[in-house]
Give the backbone structure.
Amino acid sequence: MARSLRNGDFDLALAIQSPSSPDRWYRVLLDRARALSGEMVLSCDCMGWRQDARNAAARRAVAAGRNDAGLRVPRGCKHTDAAQVLLSTPGVAAMPRYRNDHPYIGATRTRWAPLREFVPEDGWGIQEARITVSDEPYHLVLLQATGTTGTTATAAIAFATCHPATLGSRAAPVGDWGGYTIAASFCRQAGVPLAGEPPLHFVEELSGRGTTRRAAPHPGSTTREILAIGDQRDLGDGLTPAQRAENTLRLFLGPQHALLEHQGFLDISSGLYPGRVYRLRRDPQRRYERRVRVFEQGSYVRDLCIVRAQSVPEADHFLTLFFGLVADEQRILSVVQRGNIFGTQSDGHERETVPAVWRPRAVQAAAEAASA
Ligand SMILES: [Zn+2]
């Protein structure tokens, strides 16, 4: 199986805008497994990296049958160079704090429903700097979030300054890339890597001798769908808040969204109580929130009633609950009072025929990556 960002093999280290087109972004990815063993291995989806341009001469020598293949250098491009500098620079921890009324934070919270719940109002930091990437001037935005559990995540978004931009126009990409990076990092730190699609990116594919460029074809990641995320922005797209919430959920869950559609529920293994599984169900009509069925050591034992905030679309509630049980299980459970705990089948008589199998989080992550 190909390793991919979607399958949790990589972290998004930097989203960097192309100077030639404001809509084209390159993703610099950090290989997670290699990082755990202390190696910083970065990749990029630009042509230079894909063709390993820095070693092109050495490759041509090999192809020409000359044995002196020449000196090979580590594979890289100007974008991985920039990310390397960024990742090697300490001091990100002490970031100036901003509140929700900052456009970057507003956009991020609008686009990523779970972050509204799990990053407190004073939990956001922003730092901006001018940097140069291969003689090209860039405006770097670092967005940092500290969750209710104290988990911290930082996203890096670099804008090519040759494109005219304002604070407001930069907010949407910061929200898309930053929100994705932070949500993915929170999940990874909780031991359950985010399986969803990252936001819009562009891939460059070789086509004969020439090069064609096209947008990534993954469903749920088109610009329009990304921009349609959130329920506070009217883009004239004709989508209702419920439809936008569904787009976010699909984007976030990735392959698991199809599983949810198919079986009507998703299981989450508890990170706090070995043997416990939460079964999150959905109303087929998407009108009501369903109670969470709790399994202990494989047996269905009780229901938890966790109600949604007023006027929140059902898909937003499902996503917030899903993310909450992954990233901040303690807090979710703390709001469940005695009056919210019910016996089995308290809101439906469906019998449970699919076994609820608890897996330690690291094992769960590996299994999800393998099945994706
Ligand atoms: Zn690159």
